[in-house]
Design brief:
Rossmann fold, five-stranded mixed beta sheet, 5 strands, globular, alpha/beta, about 35% strand
Length: about 110
Amino acid sequence: MKRVVLITGFPLSSFPDQKTVVVRFEKLSPEELRSEVGSANAVVSYIKHQTTASALKPVLGFEPPVTGMTYLYEPGDTVIAIILRKPGRKAFVTVDDLVFWKATVVASSPR
């Protein structure tokens, strides 16, 4: 089962039970993001800003729900970090303001 996790940023607190984590980041185009989400059995949103969720609708075909929950890594997750191209808060965000990073955990070791 492929689970895609949409998250704003990539906090290290996602790995509370790990001593060492090696993560590979790959920049995705909007089309690649759409493909990753389209091939998933489940999509989970940890997006914290309504403006970001709204900007994703034209790319994904749906608006991911906004949540205040904290993401905790589960082995096998495909994590897509969605960040602003330029730091700062914006009242209106478009897909052109966003950068998509696919994060793959290459190796990890427990505490």
